[in-house]
């Protein structure tokens, strides 16, 4: 037997064994509990979403899901844990949008690459933001707000939940598209930012729809528009910014499932299929709507494209605005 021929047989055998091992792993997956790592503490929207989906997903997969809250470093601690985990399907990351799309541009010493180090599974749900004002601001529409800001540059302050936060980035994108100047005032969280606008300390906020609407209904805030491409079912009377003259303006918070890079396609497909089934259950959809989200359930390829597209958008916003995390 020629040496080259023998090497070919060995190589082919090795490949077949690898494929067989991958197939066998997929056939038995999962055979133990699955850890889902969250970037935020209990009590927030991401945590609520995980605990809504978790029980039904456990039923579908035949194994329990262990929710592991690992807050810190704007969500990057949790992401790093998953990026360094074995790609065996037993550690998943419930990735928040900003961690997967803005961290690379904000942090020069990031210990993971959001595109290289994760295998997308599915986008779970999205939540729009809402542009609100203190009621003493004399603007009843987006165009009136822009006219006011242009007439008195720098006279309006907008609140955010911190430098580089989703609320900050949404406002900076709006400023850039509208060609206006507003002064950024950063607070330690969405709650304090909303309180500042309610108290008149600042005038403008891109807040969450779920938390802002009660104040809109009582007249303590004035709502002008929502930030998604379609109207929010929670406030269908409000136009989108896309409708208000900002074509393609689409800023949402979203959560997703991703796995460590290298996870087999068969495992990704299994988790994806079971997750999408859960998201389509009427009772689950209603519960998700109640916490301010809209279920989506994309393909892995669609999620990968969302991550790539938004990473490019936010990289430009961050660079143009000179945003640096504190």
Features:
alpha/beta, 12 helices, 2 domains, ten-stranded mixed beta sheet, 45% helix, D-Maltodextrin-Binding Protein, domain 2, 326 residues
What does this structure look like?
This protein is an alpha/beta fold. It is 45% helix and 19% strand. The protein has two domains: 8-127 and 253-321, Bordetella uptake gene, domain 1 (D-Maltodextrin-Binding Protein, domain 2, 3-Layer(aba) Sandwich), CATH 3.40.190; 128-226, D-Maltodextrin-Binding Protein, domain 2 (3-Layer(aba) Sandwich), CATH 3.40.190.10. It has twelve helices and ten strands. Strands 1, 2, 3, 4, 5, 6, 7, 8, 9 and 10 form a ten-stranded mixed sheet that branches. Helix 2 (45-61) crosses helix 10 (265-279) and helix 7 crosses helix 12. The longest helix has 26 residues, at 3-28.
- Give the N-terminus to C-terminus distance in angstroms: 67 Å
Q: Shape, please? A: globular
Broad CATH class of the largest domain:
Alpha Beta
Instruction: List unreliable stretches of 5+ residues.
Output: 13-22
Report helical residue fraction.
40-55%
**Class by SSE composition:** alpha/beta
Task: Tell me the number of helical segments per DSSP (H or I, 4 or more residues long).
Answer: 12
Strand content: 15-25%
Q: Specify the CATH homologous superfamily of the largest domain.
A: Bordetella uptake gene, domain 1
Mean pLDDT: 91
The count of strands amounts to 10
| Main beta-sheet strand count, sense and barrel state | 10 strands, mixed
Cα gyration radius (Å):
22 Å
What is the CATH topology classification name of the largest domain?
D-Maltodextrin-Binding Protein, domain 2
Number of domains: 2
In N-to-C order, the SSE pattern is HEHEHEHHEHEHEHEHEEHHEH
What is the second-level CATH architecture of the largest domain? Answer: 3-Layer(aba) Sandwich
